UniProtKB/TrEMBL annotation:
InterPro entries: AsaB-like
A molecular function GO annotation: methyltransferase activity
Protein name: Methyltransferase
Highest taxon listed in the record's lineage: Bacteria
Keywords linked to the UniProt accession: Methyltransferase, Transferase
Keyword Transferase on entry: yes
Species, as recorded: Telluria mixta
């Protein structure tokens, strides 16, 4: 039996007239935290577990993987970098066929039910859930990341590069604020708007997203600790999935009293010969 689609809302950008800026620290000069205009937009989200043809990383732009981990706690950065980074690099290579996988960033998130924020951390707070529809990279920022990692790892040239995220619950099954991902094939280039995120030490460029009724959204009900959702953020090769918008959403059937979701998100550069 096919699971019933979920009716929910996702936060979309409303206009491409100006490049949006989101501050993750107190904005200078009395600016607002966000310069863009956003609205919660009704969408239908289906449960990917009910699909007869399982989504694939290089087609829809995302793939659910069985991936046990030796990690039992995600409270220590050193252990995450020493153990978990290696596990996720091995998984990323297996899923994509890349020759090299380099994890360059991670975020451990815990949803704060009192202070929902579009991208998580602000002013040194622990990262929450990201509720705004976005992609983590634009072509320009993906190229910058490639250059950084090539220099750091002595890589002279690559024929293709990609960036993927690997997302996992750090404990309980995900019933609260699950992550929805959009089929990359349903995203038009005109839906994507380059935006700046200003951190204390740098400014990153991402894509925010205009609503398009063609967007096809998927989540995976009650993701378990030994499951990882891998989804594409950029791919330099034509014909491959490239940008996979994503956002957390309020599931209308979340049982009362469900603990806030805790998760870890890995960002990984892939290079191909």
């Amino acid at each position: 039996m096919q699971p019933t689609p979920v009716s929910a809302t996702l936060q979309y950008l409303q206009s491409a007239e100006h490049k949006p800026v989101t501050y993750m620290l107190a904005p200078p000069g009395g600016h607002t935290w966000d310069t863009g205009c956003y609205a919660s937009t009704p969408v239908t989200i289906i449960d990917g577990r009910g699909k007869a043809d399982a989504p694939a990383l290089d087609r829809e732009g995302f793939q659910l993987c069985s991936a046990p981990s030796a990690m039992r706690s995600f409270g220590e950065r050193d252990a995450i970098q020493r153990v978990y980074y290696r596990e996720m690099e091995e998984l990323a290579r297996a899923v994509s066929g890349a020759r090299h996988a380099i994890v360059f960033d991670h975020l451990v998130r815990r949803r704060d039910p009192e202070t929902p924020t579009p991208f998580g951390a602000r002013n040194g707070q622990r990262p929450g859930t990201a509720t705004r529809v976005h992609c983590d990279f634009t072509p320009a920022s993906a190229q910058r990341r490639l250059a950084i990692e090539m220099e750091a790892h002595g890589i002279r040239s690559v024929s293709r590069h990609a960036i993927v995220n690997l997302w996992r619950s750090t404990g309980l099954p995900v019933l609260d604020a699950p992550l929805a991902v959009c089929d990359a094939r349903t995203v038009a280039a005109s839906d994507l708007v380059a935006a700046d995120i200003v951190y204390p030490t740098r400014t990153g460029e991402i894509f925010e997203v205009l609503h398009n009724p063609a967007h096809a959204w998927t989540y995976y009900h009650a993701m378990q600790f030994d499951e990882v959702l891998v989804f594409k953020q950029y791919d330099s090769q034509d014909g491959m999935s490239c940008f996979t918008p994503h956002a957390a959403f309020a599931h209308p059937d979340t049982p009362p009293g469900t603990p806030p979701r805790e998760s870890i998100e890995i960002r990984c550069l892939l290079t191909f010969d």
